[in-house]
Amino acid sequence: MSLVHEVADEVFLLTVPVPVIIKDVNIYIFRGEVPALVDAGTNSPEVVRLLDEALKYLGMSNPSKVLITHWHVDHAGGASRLQQQGAEIIIGRKDLREWQTFMQPDSFKHFQNQICQEWGVPERESILINRIYSGLNRLTSLPAEVRLTEDGELIRAGNMLLRVIESPGHCQGHLCFYNEQDGLLFTGDQLLPNQIAYPGVWLEDDQVVSGSVSYLNSLREMERLEAKTYFPGHGDPQPDPALRCREVLEQVQAQSRRYIPGENVFASAYDLSKEKPSPDRLFFNLHLVAGWKDMLRYKEQNAGTLCK
């Protein structure tokens, strides 16, 4: 099967399409003692078919565990179906809370109000962005049962032990999974080879904050692991994750130093594009600018120190 190939001993990469902005996403299949997945793709029929075909090709039954790096629909959308087939869905507490909030009927209206009030997005643009946001709902569903995990727990996947690493930034509850014996790090969207993940936003003490500072601190922690290879949620596995962490840290901090605050987040985000940005590009730019704004405020409050 051309879409699945071995990337580590008894670990296989299946790349499946995503019927939204992103082209595709990775699912990692662990064959061995405890059949398992890292991430689940969306719940679209094509992804269901491709995953079923890949498992059959590998001589595997349904996985007994699915480890979720984060709740976004391209990574967790298919988890409910797998749970119905008997898989244990393993997810972080904060990530589950964000997922549950996203699935609330009024979450899309709340998001639209947030970007208007907090970021100064005009109503017309907010409606276009919210259409994208709300359209993601059809690609995911909450599993009826999950098992919550936390930082440091060891989980058997295939023939490996994976250590849970809390890595907030792209999401508040983002997790990475680390096989310390072989130096293999499964990074979700926290560390990508060809792009920098946008920082998420979430509520802390009833205030909307960006995940930008958390993201940089998570990269510092990942760099210290001295892993040999990282397995991202998008793109091919790559060597030397510590080097990539340093590259991303330098790029993000260089961007934040060049940031000049505008009238509001929307104005600065709009100016990042040479022409009128598409709704999905504007969505991305808004998160970037909100992140730079938070980093600037953090440095002012902490005597110029950005990372721990």
What key attributes describe this structure?
single chain, 308 residues, alpha/beta, seven-stranded mixed sheet, six-stranded mixed sheet, 10 helices, 15 strands, 39% helix, globular
Written description of the protein model:
The protein has helices at 45-57, 73-76, 79-84, 93-102, 107-119, 123-135, 212-224, 241-258, 265-271, 279-301; strands at 4-8, 11-17, 24-30, 36-38, 65-67, 88-92, 147-149, 154-157, 160-166, 175-179, 184-188, 201-204, 207-210, 229-232, 238-239. The chain has 308 residues and is an alpha/beta fold. The model has no long low-confidence stretch (mean pLDDT 92).
Layout: helices, strands, pairs:
Elements: E1 4-8, E2 11-17, E3 24-30, E4 36-38, H1 45-57, E5 65-67, H2 73-76, H3 79-84, E6 88-92, H4 93-102, H5 107-119, H6 123-135, E7 147-149, E8 154-157, E9 160-166, E10 175-179, E11 184-188, E12 201-204, E13 207-210, H7 212-224, E14 229-232, E15 238-239, H8 241-258, H9 265-271, H10 279-301
Parallel strand pairs: 4-5, 5-6, 6-7, 11-14
Antiparallel strand pairs: 1-2, 2-3, 3-4, 8-9, 9-10, 10-11, 12-13, 14-15
Helix pairs in contact: 5-6, 6-10, 7-8, 9-10
Helix content: 25-40%
- Strand adjacency order, main sheet: 1-2-3-4-5-6-7
Secondary structure: number of strands? 15
The poorly predicted ranges are none
Topology pattern, helix = H, strand = E: EEEEHEHHEHHHEEEEEEEHEEHHH
Largest sheet: 7 strands, mixed
Q: What is the C-alpha radius of gyration, as a whole number of Å?
A: 19 Å
Determine the number of helices (DSSP H or I, runs of at least 4 residues): 10
User: Could you report the average pLDDT, rounded to the nearest whole number?
Assistant: 92
* Measured distance between first and last alpha carbons: 45 Å
Task: Label the overall shape.
Answer: globular
